[in-house]
Amino acid sequence: MTDHILIERRDAVQVIRMNRPDKKNALTRAMYGKMSEALAAGDADPAVRVHVFLGVPGAFSAGNDLTDFLAVATGGEGGSEVWEFLLALARSQKPMVSGVDGIAVGIGTTLNLHCDLTFATPRTLFRTPFVDLGLVPEAGSSLLVPQVLGRQGAFALLALGEGLSAEQARAAGLIHQVVEEGGLEAAVLAAAARIAAKPPQALRIARDLMRGPREPLLARIEEETALFRERLKSDEARAALMAFMERKK
Ligand code: COA
Question: Which CATH number fits domain 2-182+199-248: 3.40.1710.10, 3.40.50.150, 3.30.413.10, 3.90.226.10?
Answer without folding.
Answer: 3.90.226.10
